[in-house]
Amino acid sequence: MVVIEVLMGILQELFKRVIPHHCLGAVWARRDRKLGKGGTIAPSVLATIEQFNRVSLRVIATILRTRELKSSLRAKILQKWIDIAQVGHLSMCSLWY
After folding, report:
1. CA distances from residue 41 to 21, 50, 57, 61, 78 in whole angstroms, order as listed
2. Nearest to 46 by CA among 16, 13, 22
3. Minimal CA–CA distance to 52: which of 23, 10, 93?
4. What is the pLDDT of residue 92?
């Protein structure tokens, strides 16, 4: 599946760039994020969150694209995204081992 390969490639690059101590203490969640070097706190973590949000919005958009879609078709679209997520999850787990 091309979608999985593209998403996994993007996620792998983002995870490679994450600086571990940026994940501690939820520094990336602070309201005033313009405190770090380069003007932003934890930019690598924020980039990962932004990518997750983009994918989430894409899933929502494909499921809710028009009012005319029947629920059976919406269910098929949702199942396709679930399948993509499961394969992607397995791919990500294989990176850790």
Report:
1. 11, 14, 24, 30, 35
2. 22
3. 10
4. 59
Q: 3-class SS at 49?
A: helix
Look-up of token digits 């949000």: 53
Backbone angles phi, psi at 79, to 5 degrees: -60, -40
Query: What pLDDT sits at residue 70?
Result: 92
pTM to 2 decimals?
0.69
Rounded-to-integer distance, Cα 77 and Cα 64, Å: 10
Write down the mean pLDDT value for the chain.
Answer: 79
Distances (CA, A) of 69 to 48, 62, 73: 31, 10, 6
Mean pLDDT of 68-75: 92
Whole-angstrom distance, CA of residue 96 vs CA of residue 47: 21
22-42 b/e with 16+ CB inside 10 Å = b?
A: beeeeebeeeeeeeeeeeebb
